[in-house]
Structures are given as C-alpha cells and as structure tokens.
Amino acid sequence: MKLIDSIFRFVGLAPENAPAEATSTTPAHVTEAAGVTIDNDEDGWRRLSGDTRRDLSPTSQYRMRETAAFLWEANALANRMIELPIAFMLAEGVSLKHEDEVLQLVLNDFWNDPINCWDIKLERKVRELAMFGEQCWPTFVNEYTGHVRLGYLDPALIETVVHDPDNPEQPIGIVTVKDAKGRALRYRVIVNGPDEELFTSRTQAIRDTFIDGECFYYQVNVLSAGKRGRSDLLAVADWLDGYDSYLFNELERAQDTRAHIWDVTLTGSDQATVDARAKQMRTPGPRAIRVHNENEKWQAVAPDLNGNDSEAVARLFRNHALGGGTLPEHWFGGGGDVNRAVGAEMGEPTFKVMSMRQRLWKHILQNVGRYQLRKYLGARAVEPRWNDPQTQCEAVFPELTARDTTKWAAAMQQVVASVILATDRGLITEETSVALVQQIAGRLGVEFDAAEELKAARAEREKRQNDEAKRRQEEDFYREPISPPAGGNPAQQTPPADDAE
Asked: Residue 108's CB: how many other CB atoms inside 10 A?
C-alpha cells in the first residue's frame, strides 16, 4: 500500500469518519420531494462545501509523523531536504541580544543553562519542527529568581490543541494523551501579555482550566482554521519513497546485468547424450581450462535489460521530489547543464524559502527570550507591559549565504551618480535620492532609515561648511611678519604674542 493512502486522507470525506449524528441511532433520512433517488448511505456523507475542518485525522497525523521520521532516517534525499536548511540557518551559531548589560546577562544564563543548552538543542528543535510540523515546550520557572527552563513534549503525546472560540487562529491550550494512570495534563499556551487584555472573558475562563503549567506551542504548514501542523515532507513523502524503491530496483538490475550463464551446444547428440554430458559438467572457475572437441561449443550469455534510460528516469523522480522541497538539482549531486551563473540564480528561490523559515525562528526565539525577561522582572516586583522596551530582545542569525557584492557595488555607483544628476536638475527630491540609495545599500547588508540618514547628512554637511568658512577666515586674517633682533638666530627667537588671538 502506497504511503499516500495513509498520509493524504483528510477528515470528513468518508463514511467511517462521519459525524456522530449520522450513526445507526439517527432517525431515517426524510425527503419531501417525490421521485428522487437517494443512496442508502447518503446521510453518512458530508458535503464538501460545508466542511470547514482543516486537519488530518488522528490516524493520518500519527502516520505522517512516523513516516517523516522514517524517511529522515532511511532516505538520503529526505534527510538532505531537512538538514540542508538547518545548516544554512544555524551553522555559524545563534544568540539573543539585549541593549541593557544586566538583561543581557539574564539572557546569557537562560541560553547557556545546562538544561536549556540552546547551542545544542536548537538544531533538534528546528529539525523536528520541520519533520513533525509542530513543537511544544513546557516551561519550568523559578519563582524566586525568574529563571526559565524548557522541557519537551513529543507531538505524539498531544491529544488535543484547544483554540480560542472567538479567534480560531489562536491556540490557547494543550491537552496530552492519558498516561498509565488515566491522567491527562493540561498546559496553557504562552502568549506574552495579560489575558485580560488579549482574550474575552469566555476565553479566559477556558484558559483557567489549564492548570498543569505553561508551554510554548508553534506550528508550520498549518491553515488558519487548522489545529495541527504538518511535516515539510508531507507532500513529497510518496515520491521520496518511490525514488528510493526505484534506485533499489536499479541496483538489483545492475547486479543482474553483470550475471551470465554458460550456454553449451552439443552438435549431433541425442537427448540421452545431452543429459549424460550435463551431469558431468561443472561451472568453470576463473582461468580454468576446458578441453572439448569440435562437437561441443561453449558461450557466455548475459541478459540485455535495456537499462540505458535509468538515469533519465531517476533524474525525473529526483527533481520532482527536490522541486517539492524547493532545492535545486545540483545541491544533491546532479550537475546537469548547470554552470556557475545558472546555479546562483537557481539557488535564489531556495534562499527565499529558507529566509521565511529563519524569520519564523527569529520570532520564536525572541518570544521565548521575552518570556524569560518578563519572568525575571516579575520576580523583582517589576511588572512590565508586553511591549515594554525592557522585554525586547533580538535573535541574531548568521547570513544564509555569502553575499556577492560585486554587482551591487557596481549598481551603487550607477545609482549614486544618477540621483546626484537628477537632484541637481531638480527632477527628484533629496529624500527620494536617499531612498533609492537605501535600497541598494540594503542589498549590501547596510540598513538605515532614509529620513534619519538625510537629516544626519545635512547636519554633517552644515558642520563641514562652517568649519571650512572658519578656516578660510583665519587664513585671510593679516598677520605682521616677525622681524628677528639684530645678530640673533631667527630660529631661536620666541615670536611675540598675537594681539588678535
């Protein structure tokens, strides 16, 4: 049975998943119009146009996670589709920064905590969010110091994700599966802000029932009305499995093409003679010697399996799977007709997708860092608002790839010359000129605000003009030449004081 039969089956599209009201205890279906043919199981189906559920069934959700874990472990192509983005996003390290020195030390303690150990565990969290589509981290807070440590809840242990009844986009609680004692934990999803400002009274009452602690919960590949995230490998799982199966079949065929048999022809012999000779024959070993007369002919026969098209078919399957993961072919050992220029252009869509995921993780880490700062300040009787500057921190990620500054440096030179000419001719304003330069500077990794930069440039230009005017004024001031006394050495004389100075 193909993987797609178990992964891509959505809730609400089959009789066995019909709602409770469509059971055998439901009254018989009644139709007012006469002469209309009705299927016996029509009341067991749900109209597609009336279905607003956007999640996989629990069984499909489970199979998706197990399939993703298996593919990552056993399928080389699937492994690279998960690992390559992680390497680009995290290889040079990530950190949390704050302008205040004391709060920076708080973030350092949180980041380097032996349990949190972000330098090591961040890689796992990024990997598993991509594989499973969701991550849940219960929090443990020291009420005296405000120090925060994070735990981990496997997505397989999540029974239900409860969303705000007044805002289906916002998860508010996590209910776990029951343990051996029949107890399910209820975690409140962390939202960095007071409940009374963020939720209605009805939602606050629901959140008050989640009494087993707080947790962070994040998802990817989820729709606004959905509750559970989906794996990055979901759409290409069957193609990855098919590609692997095809390669194994090709491996077996390659082994078969190297196999051969000995075809022996006995001229002028009857069946009895042939059978007797067959019993005497043994397969010759390497460099063996065979002696026979002209009536016996030996010939090695190898199968012709017509494997010339294997590479093209394998490339077709591989590129289809790689395209689903937005990875270019030459990133997985396939050169094709790619040269350096084409390869650079082919990588741009990949970097865009990675930038989106990096931006998500930047938000996640900043949100977690903000929670740590709020708890630290709260333990010291300081209750900052959710948007207080004290609780703002920045997650610093490495550049996804080395910048090719050559073309942008040339573009900067052309743009600067053009805006200077246009400004002198009165065609554009100085504000627009600086904004155009800002766009090119951003490509070179230099970010600035155009309005503030123009204001600072004007102030600096005015200062230079004033300094230049003062210098010229001092140079134009007449000073009477100094006459050395008779018989003295001019170099040893002390010049008289300048009355003007």
From this structure: 13
What whole-number distance in Å separates Cα of residue 65 and Cα of residue 485? Answer: 101
Are 219 and 54 spatial neighbours (Cβ–Cβ below 8 Å)?
no
The CA distance from 431 to 455, in Å, is 10
Query: Residue 273 and residue 267: Cα distance in Å, rounded?
Result: 11
Three-state DSSP class for 494?
A: coil
| End-to-end Cα, the chain, rounded Å | 99
- Provide the whole-model pTM: 0.69
Question: Helix, strand, or coil here: 457?
Answer: helix
Please list the residues that pair with 140 across neighbouring strands.
Answer: 149
pLDDT tens, the chain, 501 aa long: 455 454 444 334 444 443 343 344 444 444 444 444 444 544 455 444 444 567 888 888 999 999 999 999 999 999 999 999 999 999 889 999 999 999 999 999 999 999 999 999 999 999 999 999 999 999 999 999 999 999 999 999 999 999 999 998 999 999 999 998 999 999 999 998 888 889 999 999 999 999 999 999 999 999 988 899 999 999 999 999 988 888 888 777 777 666 777 888 888 888 888 888 888 888 887 778 878 888 888 888 777 666 557 777 888 888 888 888 878 777 776 666 665 555 566 677 888 889 999 999 999 999 999 999 999 998 988 877 777 888 899 999 988 776 666 777 788 888 888 888 888 888 888 888 888 888 888 777 677 888 888 888 888 888 888 888 888 777 766 566 666 665 555 555 555 555 444
Distances from the Cα of 395 to the Cαs of 99, 411, 470, in angstroms? Answer: 12, 31, 47
